[in-house]
Amino acid sequence: MHSASIAIIGGGLSGLYAAYLLEQRGITDYVLIEARSRFGGRIDSPAWPDTTSPHNRFDVGPSWFWPELQPQLMQLIQSMDLEVFEQFETGAMVIERSPDEAPIRTNGYVNSPPSMRVAGGVASLVEALHRRLEKTRLMTGETVQHLRYRDDHIELVSVDTAHSVTTRKVRRVLLAMPPRLAESTLTFDPPLPEPLARQWRSTPTWMAPHAKYVALYDTPFWREQGLSGEARSLCGPLNEIHDASVPGGAAALFGFFGVPAQVRQNTTEETLKAHCRSQLGRLFGPQATEPRAELFKDWTLDPLTATPADRRDGGAHVAAPEIEAPSGPWRGRVTGIGSEWSEPFPGYLAGAVDAVTRVVARISSETQR
After folding, report:
1. Are residues 114 and 159 in contact, defined by beta-carbon separation less than 8 angstroms?
2. Comparing C-alpha atoms, which of 64, 20, 80, 324 is closest to residue 192?
3. Tens digits of per-residue pLDDT, 215-236?
């Protein structure tokens, strides 16, 4: 049986940052287990096809952060030597109210404080953290299924893509995954206290019900028309659209689908893309109907993100649930560190940094007693 002091379940921003902070504090007896073949979780920044530029990548997961409101996240990004830039919002926005009326231009608005993006996509932050970690402690393609409390330790059982089962003996588990996903996919023996389990499964997972579409172009031609690239639509399929261009790189528009998940699942990806191209043409002119490339991500189809309950939710940011059981065998043994467990920033990128910082500080304090 393998053993470690701490097991981190999930290799998104929360999991990698937890591993980074633990190593920074000299706590190296841990293992990080990620079910996907890649790290990042809901952070995903595919590249422009055939690109050679490291910055020509586009977020199909979370995109923005606000340094003035989220200084911890900004400090982390700066410590990784990553560049950031401001979301382009200069110019008029377009509003589409009805299929019987032409879209109208109206005064745009600029967010204050400004929305910021990471050069090379948010995945650049994931990759920077990964480069700084001891690789022998990081596992991918391994799905944790069972947690069994046994005397003074936890038996953590996982299965890999070849169906090989591994059991590890650990003292503490950090859940770097959404609360609802943890409650629905992990078996606890003994069971979690029902009030806590109910709270976790009632917490929506940010991004889980959403889908994003990105259209890539050679130039941001809409800017020449005095448009910011921002649009709102009651017609769809995209209800909110923004400029996703990369400074000095490729141009792009991206949008969130307003079409419910249940409807999207009964429609092919190519049909959805065709409707998006048509809509962009209505909003920004014929040139918008012919993107050089397209990206599409429906998070409801990702079983490592969304549960059936998420597909029925609107995906709003809601109050953070309790991070662990208040009493019983799981108290202090299993602790949530995913972004939904952050009180000030539940579901946001900054929430991952906040939740991890608080828990690792507590672990560090306990080890020094």
Report:
1. no
2. 324
3. 999 999 999 999 999 999 999 9
Q: Which residue has the tokens 């606000």?
A: 66
Domain containing 230 equals 44-121+209-304
Residue type, 365: S
Distance (Å, whole) CA 84 – CA 133: 23
H or E element, residue 117 = strand 116-118
Helix (H, G, I), strand (E, B) or coil at 192: coil
Structure token digits, residue 211: 């889908």
- Same domain for 20 and 7, yes or no, is yes
Picking from 333, 339, 344, the residue whose alpha carbon sits closest to that of residue 17 is 339
Neighbours of 104 (CB within 10 A): 11
- Would 11 be classed as within a structural domain? yes
Q: What is the pLDDT, as a whole number, of residue 6?
A: 97
Higher pLDDT, 219 or 2: 219
pTM (predicted TM-score): 0.95
Q: What CA–CA distances, in Å, run from 20 to 28, 62, 352? A: 10, 21, 13
DSSP string, 48-97: PTT---TT-B--SS---B-TTT-HHHHHHHHHTT--EEEPP--SEEEEE-
The residues that bridge with 189 in the sheet, in sequence order, are: 148
Provide the number of structural domains found in the chain.
2
